[in-house]
Design a protein that fits this description.
It holds the Pfam family DUF6824. This is DUF6824 domain-containing protein. There is one protein chain. The chain has 158 residues and is an alpha+beta fold. The protein contains five helices and six strands. It has one domain. Helices cover 35% and strands 11% of the residues. Strand 5 and strand 6 form a beta hairpin. Helix 2 runs antiparallel to helix 3, helix 2 packs across helix 4 and helix 3 packs across helix 4. The longest helix is centred in the middle third of the chain and has 19 residues. The radius of gyration is 20 Å and the shape is elongated. The relative contact order is 0.15.
């Protein structure tokens, strides 16, 4: 019997702090300055060149091959491992988004951090699977009537 991975539930205090799995307390809202281990959400040079984001991308790249080879039921485990790895750094890494009104950062939470990590792990998977010699998803083929194997007409679409 296969068991799916269930991530731990974080403990959040009333004063806007959270404890990571190692028991270290860290602030999750009204953050003025991100730490070098924080992951900044958003686009552009400011987030791309942040030390935490650079390290995060290196971690993601090391997980991509094993993520590629794992069955769908096991993929959540890798996202959770990466998030836990970031959260257990010293100082703890947080997944931060900037509030445009206050110019302060806040932690996006466990679920959004896992979703973002899963998205990063999926990027470039078809090319990676081909490079690893794994079967990429089969493309659909058109029938003589202009329909693909799934049914609806595809005639005239580009």
């Amino acid at each position: 019997m296969s068991r799916s991975y269930k991530p731990p539930t974080p403990v959040v205090t009333q004063d806007g702090y959270q404890y990571n799995p190692m028991g270290v307390k860290f602030k999750i809202s009204s953050i003025s300055y991100p730490s070098p281990n924080d992951i900044l959400m958003g686009r552009g040079g400011g987030t791309n060149n942040h030390t935490g984001n650079l390290n995060y991308r290196k971690i993601i790249e090391t997980y991509k091959p094993i993520y590629s080879k794992s069955p769908k039921s096991g993929k959540l485990k890798f996202s959770c491992e990466v998030v836990d790895l970031i959260r257990n750094l010293d100082p703890p890494g947080r997944f931060l988004k900037k509030d445009q009104e206050t110019n302060l950062y806040f932690d996006i939470g466990e679920k959004a951090a896992r979703e973002k990590t899963s998205q990063c792990l999926r990027e470039g998977q078809p090319e990676l699977r081909r490079a690893l010699g794994l079967n990429p998803k089969k493309s659909t083929t058109r029938t003589s009537r202009g329909r693909d194997s799934r049914g609806p007409s595809v005639r005239g679409r580009t």
